[in-house]
Design a protein that fits this description.
The chain is of the alpha/beta class and about 180 residues long. It has one domain (about 5-180): HAD superfamily/HAD-like (Rossmann fold, 3-Layer(aba) Sandwich), CATH 3.40.50. The chain contains seven helices and six strands. The chain has helices spanning about 30-40, 55, 60-75, 110-120, 135-145, 155-160, 170-180; strands at about 5, 45-50, 85-90, 130, 150, 165-170. A six-stranded parallel β-sheet has the order 3-2-1-4-5-6. It is globular, with a radius of gyration of 15 Å. The relative contact order is 0.18. The protein binds magnesium ion and zinc ion. The site of magnesium ion (MG) has 7 residues, from loops.
Length: about 180
């Protein structure tokens, strides 16, 4: 069995400007690329799990999202820091685009995306970790059986109130520096 580090995207990998659906709005957070490189060196699969309700809300299309993914992966691949897989949930029960209006077991805080990744990559979930910036990220991971939970960003202490097992850090680079020596 293998181990992975799960990541949320917006607010962890790139600056969360709110509904980032276009390449022009995609800015890597400082220090994230060396952090991803380090985890890869340590033998972790890098797996992105991202709620993209902007698609259901009609803020951007699925194609827009996939082109942002392509851009992100090209940048990361050039640095040996790319994701091994990207799981996304475009759904929202109260969305505007009927195709994507449903209550989806993939949408965090539900663990669907992580469980799918575990099946696809034969992961040992207790040996995996999750780095997110909202309680839903770490709650999804906890529900999946992931044991190492990290919250990052300016609101991490507030978010951690909903998941006290999560440790708080300013950013993912700090998590890797302190927790993955
Ligand atoms: Mg986020
Ligand atoms: Zn979904």
């Amino acid at each position: 069995m293998r181990r992975a580090c799960f990541f949320d995207r917006d607010g962890v990998i790139n600056v969360d400007y709110g509904y980032v659906g276009h390449v022009a709005d995609f800015t890597f957070i400082a220090g994230i690329i060396p952090a991803l490189q380090r985890l890869r060196q340590l033998g972790y699969l890098l797996i992105l799990t991202t709620n993209q309700s902007g698609i259901a809300r009609g803020r951007y299309s699925c194609e827009d999202f996939l082109s942002v993914c392509g851009h992100m992966q090209r940048c990361l691949r050039a640095e040996q820091a790319h994701f091994d897989a990207i799981y996304y949930c475009p759904h929202l029960s109260t969305g505007q685009v009927s195709t994507y209006c449903k209550d989806c077991p993939g949408r965090k805080p539900s663990p669907g995306m992580l469980l799918q990744a575990a099946a696809d990559f034969d992961l040992s979930l207790p040996d995996c970790c999750m780095i997110g910036d909202h309680a839903g990220d770490v709650l999804a991971a906890k529900a999946a059986g992931v044991s190492r939970l990290y919250l990052v960003g300016a609101d991490c202490l507030r978010e951690a109130a909903q998941c006290p097992q999560a440790r708080c850090y300013p950013d993912a680079a700090s998590v890797v520096k302190e927790e993955f020596k």
